[in-house]
Amino acid sequence: MKSLDRLFETSSRALARRTSRRSLLALFGQALTGAALLPLLPVDRASRAWAAENKADANDPQSCDYWKYCAIDGFLCSCCGGSSSSCPPGAAPSPISWVGTCHNPHDGRDYILSYNDCCGKTSCGNCGCNRNERERPVYRPSRNNDLNWCMANADVNYHCTVSVIVGVAEKK
Ligand code: ABN
Fold it and tell me: 159: closest CA among 59, 74, 72?
């Protein structure tokens, strides 16, 4: 143990002899600058590039990233025995709904979508999806997706949600 102590003592003394207070301060400054510049170093952006290139999910009606689902909140009917725009057998579409505007990456146009809840069966539970592009507070109910739109149906049980194109959004 003593030899270890001695080793540390001699190396510390040697370092102290070789190093002035000013150079220690300089070293400290360099370390600080290095730490500050660390976030500027190039990072692996491969995953982000992968996501940008693979817009496959924007094409998949069973994926929450499907382009028509930009303002949906609920279970995707396409994962519940229906499709992106039709209710599964045994469930009835709500006659009232909320609307959103989604960008279609395929033709570069913006579409107005009606999000109707499908009602009359218990909650589907598959592919829950909550996206809120341009969603408005609940006091603007037609632009809000946090409501059970089966409220006007004879059977108010919520099953899943569809998205139906109702028009093309005009650019001003
Ligand atoms: N519009 C979908 C939904 C249904 C029930 C409760 C909240 C949201």
Answer: 74
Q: Is 161 in the pocket of ligand 1 (CB under 6 A)?
A: yes
Neighbour count for residue 119 (Cβ, 10 Å)? 24
Pick from 112, 117, 111: which is nearest to 80 by CA? 117
Burial category of 126 from C-beta neighbours within 10 Å (exposed 0-12, middle 13-18, buried 19 and up): middle
- pLDDT per residue as tens, the chain (172 positions): 566 677 667 766 765 666 666 655 565 566 656 556 544 544 444 445 444 444 558 899 999 999 999 999 999 999 999 999 999 999 999 999 999 999 999 999 999 999 999 999 999 999 999 998 888 888 888 888 888 999 999 999 999 999 999 999 987 6
Distance from the alpha carbon of residue 136 to the mean position of ligand 1, in angstroms: 15
Distance, in Å, from the CA atom of 137 to the CA atom of 142, rounded to the nearest integer, reads 10
Rounded distance, CA 77 to CA 93, Å?
11
Nearest CA to ligand 1 atom 6: 148
What is this structure's pTM?
0.68
